[in-house]
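DATA SHEET
Item: assembly model
Revision: 1
Owner: S.N.
Input lines:
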Amino acid sequence: MKKSTSTSSVHRFPAWTLGLIGILLVILVPVLYFLRTDDPSVNPADYLPEKPVHVDHSDIVKGDFKTGQDVTRACLECHEDAATQVMGTTHWTWESKAFDVAWRNEPVTIGKINQINNFCIGTQGNENKCMSCHAGYGWEQGREAALSNPENVDCLACHADTGIYGKGTYGNPAEGVDLLAAAKSVRLPTRENCGKCHFDGGGGNGVKHGDLDESLYFPSENNDVHMGGELNMQCTDCHWTKDHQILGRMLADNYTIDPKEQVSCEQCHVDQKHKDERINTHLSAVACQTCHIPAIALEDPTKVYWDWSQAGQEGRTDDHFTYLKIKGEFVYDKNFAPTYLWFNGNNEYRYILGDKIDPNGITYINKPAGSINDPTAKIFPFKVHVAKQPYDAVYNYLLQPITSGEGGFWTDFNWDQAFRLAEPITGLKYSGQYGFATTYMYWPTTHMVQPAENALQCDSCHGPNGRLDWEALGYPGDPIEWGGRK
Amino acid sequence: MKRTTLIIAGLLILTLAIGLGTALASPQPAPASQASPIHPNFPLLDKNGENVLTSGGAVSTMQTCGQCHDTKFIQSHAFHSDLGLSDYQVTTEFNASPGTFGKWDPLTYRYLSQPGDERLDLSTAEWLMLNGARVVGGGPAETSRSGQPLESLPLSAKNYETAILSKNGKTEAWDWKASGTMEMNCFLCHLETPNNAARTAFIRSGSFGSANTGTLLGLGVVDYDGSTGAWTWNPEAFNEAGEVKSEILKIQDPTNANCAACHGEVHTGTEPLTYTACDLDYPQTATTGQVISAQKISLSGVNLSGKNDLNRSWDIHAERQLQCTDCHYALNNPAHATEAQGNNPEHLKYDPRTLEIGEYLQRPDHNFARGQSAQFNVAPELKGTMRRCDSCHDPDKGHADWLPYVDAHMAAVACETCHIPQMYAPAIQSYDWTVLTAQREPVKTCRGVEGEPNQVTSLVTGYQPVLLNRKNIDGKLLLAPYNLITSYYWVYDDANGNQRPVRLLDLETVFFQNGSYAADIVAAFDANGDGALSNDELVINDAAKEELIKTKLTALGLNNPRIEGLVQPYSINHNVTRGENAVNDCQACHKEGSRIFQPIKLADYAPNGTTPVFDANNNVNASGEIVTGADGAVYYQPVPANDGMYVFGSSRVSWVDWLGALMFAGSLLGVLGHGTMRYLSARKQARGPKRTERIYMYEPYRRFWHWLQTTSIILLLFTGLIIHRPDIFGVFSFRGVVIVHNVLAVILVVNAALSLFYHLATERIREFIPRPYGFFDDAIVQAKYYINGIFKGEPHPFEKRPDSRMNPIQKATYFVILNVLLPLQIITGALMWGVQRWPQIADWFGGLPVLAPFHSLVAWMFGTFILVHVYMTTTGATPLEAMRAMVTGWEEVEVHEPHAEETAEAKLDNDEKKEN
């Protein structure tokens, strides 16, 4: 019989604790192993960029500001690199990098500064109005002068409270703006700052994009699940910005787009797995936007047709949605289904000024690239804008008129004059004869993402009421019967 | 005979003039355009085989389609057409066949009289007029019950097959040669836009021979002159060869819209869905609330409660673009050859020898694959030929990551139970034919809607189907969802001694006089004295009313009139939804008062106490009870235990819980009492330090397995309690608790097995075995100590030594615990878990209904044991000493004074061991 012989030692670890740990392990390890469920899904909100804390500038900024450049000078005192940073971005240059395109011998650049679209057509010679959306001042001095001076960078357009600051002609601050108050109000850009230009592009609310309009200032969750409801995300939450380089490229202002420079859902939604496995089989052929943006222009209508040939008529009453003397006839539409095309992120063609057109056919201002055989392409929603815009009947290229500029169509309603005045500015020779040709422009739909419950269902695309033209997309028939692309 | 011809002509002109006017203007809305581009052009032939362009007669589908397809084969292999005719047999019971032709449907009420019946209700002709909208043609629409063509039967008012009951109650002859009969109507299912409205108008007016041609109205092929009854074929619709142009007459595979013509609400468009509720023109929706639509419920146009949150489609298979024919296909369709494998030798997985498509198209078997619903019993030999959910879906893949016991669930519960959790359209609840409304209709109630159905102000709430066990074709018993429709009606014995339902004509005679309610009826039923009878008043709720009707019926010559009630189950198989909207919360079933026990209302009342009887002619186990609530309403209460179902957390055997609780409570009281007494008596005694020695009592392994056992058992008891009463412990996830319980059980078994091995190998097991010699004496000595001596501060009678640590009572207790209770608990637990793996072994013991309560009872015993055991450990030198010893191994043991009553044997042992 063993009697007490052990020397009790206070310092020694009681042996029975080992047994206790052993028991706990024997119980906990198997229990936890079997209780394990599916990997918890990653929370996309974890990927939102961290923003610097807001610094209130009301005590920092001092001084009497008479011009926009005065304000910029003050900003540059502390933010020394800001101007040079901005001047390296497309918000300043309004011009893409150089592209080698198949139909031109030399590289071309594309941007508002030198190319045209099928809305207000072109900015060259029309800087007085168009540059109210440029991130710089001083366009009355001309392009070279405006773009070369760092003090012309308009900090306030993106950073000031939009209730206090607005832009006027030639990119300068609007009449009557209190520049000091505006300068004191600076903060990180909000939807208001971006929306001031991007929601009203094309000459009015929601005209251009279809998926960007003033309804996104105070959207409901059903209008845009990111910008609405509790999330209330700002543009910069997806258009990540570093050193003023803003992520995201506009299709119409580029030929090819490097995916690294483009915003994508995967930035936050890293795990694409849906609960319904059948949806997961669609991921290789269908873009997120296709199912999650069921309709364009949910609340405010967007322009889908613009007939310049009707402009200038006497005696017709102006109505924003149907006819304006300066612009012509339009058709607006609201809450309609997008057009679906294969899209790999690039254009296969972008109209460069001077390209020859077939006046009896359709001219594509831009044409999205992709096909059913392109493994990087997915079915993507687009807003198509159709226009009838002027072209030179002899040289067979599209013309860019002076509209808001001096002597332009918007003052004198004279097309000839508008084209002649434009000749030295754009470099396009004008033969004296003009006509109107049909043009198409494709705008990718990527905003107004609706909550998942409102996403497209199976019968939205498949079946007798489906919205996809299978044969136009290159399928032999509905993939639900024929199978998907290999 | 002239009179009958006149009647027929009169009916023709009257009804057609009205009916066709509307019908001509509106062919069916265009369903999916699936026109087969390779169907050749064909001429339309009349019943003599002549091209209709020349003869100008009605088209004969058998002749026309029979040019290429074997129409004789098709017609003889089509239960849609046969409708029970081939199984028709005269009987004293109501039902002469299992199909629509011969089976009495209390909802439509009119009875197809059998040959030789005393009174005529429905003759074949009138049956066809009433039901013809849903009769495809052929079968009883062409052939008599003895297999003769109807047109060949000699005219006789006495023969119910060539008679008709006129409005004034007289039986008259029906001239089939004049009215024509209906061939199987290929156009109805195989045209893109068949004119079912025109066809139905013809049938309802009795001109059966025109029905098939009427299906073509509105397409520009043919016109009908109502006044002359002549058909005008439009030559523009035909090509030079006299064949009808295929752009005009598009022949196609049947689409959902074709099926909807007879079966009910199928919505294929994009406009917000609306339906007509509780209307037998849409039978599937009316009887069950099923709606076939791909649209999201939240986008529909129905005034549905909670609609905005219902983000799911009405029917997921419709959403995924399945057609009815994808599951209900022709049985010899080679495209579904995998299903039609038949009896292959064992080594052959798949036999690719199938019909060529051409052969199939010549003789397509129109016996379609069908399920095993409760309400459709025609051609019972074909039941269950349809593929089931698991033919396409693998339940393991879909459930394995969240459902414990997948196999056990699949073996007890049909897919429909969880995947059709709720119906979102109203369905018929009851029809009371014991009374008649002013429109000569029964008093109807509709479930799932507040207010009158089909009124825009009524709120549709939908309803939860009742869960009943269904006997599958393969013998398995599975829980499935149903709607129950109750009907009350009068029944009498006719002169031949047959039971028959009272004819509508006779009921009308009883209730009405000169076009309005008879005076005595008003007097009896008019409760509020306003002279009108509302639906609330039209109830036979006392003996007086019943007597009144009975007397009046007897006066008409109907013997022994009595009220009967019938409860009919209607299977629900459509409106399936995906997992996230299905029942996926364990506690929906595994808790007290769960879905499985949810009663369903049968009717708002039972006429004068007649309890309805559950229809036994189906594959549904009606093992529950029909109970009457306090408000007089009649309910069906499922009793799953009667089907041998035991649902953890929901089912329980109360006496087991009571007994267990009693044991536990009793022990608790005993322990508290004993402890209190010890405490009080200890205070009274002189406190002298007891002499103790520090002895190494428990080696490490013993302590380890003891505490592991303790933790496991306590956690098992805790998790077991949650599984038993999940509604009390709602905060825990049922699934998680079940998994933890199972894992712990395995730990327990392994621990016990290893410990058993240890004790066997070291022969220490001897200590646990009570020695029989002197056992009782020793036990009594020990007992006396606990009852008496312990309060006096006496020493323990038996010395506690490392090789003899347990007193006799302890040995006995542990013996029972370790050799009886623990193995029983383990075995019952393993069998309960193994219900899905070894169902036969579990069933041999009586299945879950026996195993589970037993397991619970033993659990109570373990709980009691732990209570007493922990208390008994306080009887050491100090209250916590024994527990400390079991942790550290060293115990301060009372030095043993030899006890006076110690037996000689024990003393010998003690001395022996002292020397070691």
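QC remark: The radius of gyration of chain A is 29 Å.
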